[in-house]
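Posting for a labmate who doesn't have an account.
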Amino acid sequence: EIEDFVPVEYWTLIAKLREGSKGQLFEAEAVKYKGKKLELHNEQEARAAEEALSKADYMVSDAVKKERKRHPVPPFTTSSMQQEANKKLNFSAKKTMMLAQQLYEGVSLGKTSVGLITYMRTDSVRLADVAVDEIRDYIKQNCGSEFCPAKANHYSTKKNAQDAHEAIRPTSVIRTPAEMQEYLTNDQLKLYTLIWNRVVASQMTDAVYDVTTLTIDAADYQLRATGSVLKFPGFLQLHSKYDDKEKDSKVPYVEPGTKPPAHFTEATLIKELEEKGIGRPSTFAPTIVTLLTRGYVVKEAKKLLVTELGIMTVDMLTEYFKGLINIGFTAQMEEKLDEVAEKKHTKDEVLSEFYGPFKKDLDHAGVAIPIVEIPLEVSDVPCDKCNDGTMMVIREGRFGKFLACPNFP
């Protein structure tokens, strides 16, 4: 069940400090008051704390400097490729899969056509041994041996993954994006570059940071300042221009701990579907397309916003089909389908178990569900058929919104 979010007002207090008159300027956040977590819920409380801190003397009470490693991420699955292409390239899931299909089926390289990537519908992060060896050789020759770990990096595939196909990778790492540029469209090159960089970086060494954390006392308040400096780039040597997650900073801004959940983007929705076990890599993109074409959601910038039709549909389905419209059922059905494939159950057994309760709910819903009409939105466009001043209305159809005559039956 989706619980209503109750917004809570929070204020954050940041002090700009420097050691001495010529030291590095940095920021520290007020985190405690008289030994307890500081929570400022309105402007009055925040201004009182600001006034007290503006008069206080500041002293560093603790300083910790330590090394932190950041590991490269696994090669792409269908899901992670769609998410990254949405975040980094602003590609829709449908466009990403179309381009990946083109790269997989083959691109003309002069006189021959060559498939540039492996099969693009997969939920495995496994790489073939021959591919790992080729990638490691490439790293040693082109980046330096210090960027290639002593042993190959291995990544764990999720428990429910089918693992029929290996991760998405270039069919040959020797075909670099620079060499493929003349043979690819601009969008094909962008996606190929994303895939190529991801898989090569996955076999490189960790990035290493020096992280410094200062604890600062001021009057009854305690502040904290944290910063990180990149000491050894590791996989970021190759991947940095596609990765803006972390930058050198003496004191990066720290987000308040509580905030409303953000609207889904295509990337975050795909991630949620994968984590909850809803569907397969091949169904993620069609699912989003269906939501958009049926008018259940609309896209504004990158956000997916639920429409009035979508809310009404969810309310109706969850009321009359409680046993089906829930994440647990969907994930459980995926497991049962896997068990059919593994010969642990027959399809007739699974369908019989499903159909009984479903038929009962369906019969009840057919009688109980009221006919609901969505309020019509009147446009400022006159109907050219009526010619009597009747204004056309905006209706929702399977292909989106359209103008219609209100007198049309």
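Reply:
Got it, the structure tokens are right above this. The chain is about 35% helix and 20% strand.
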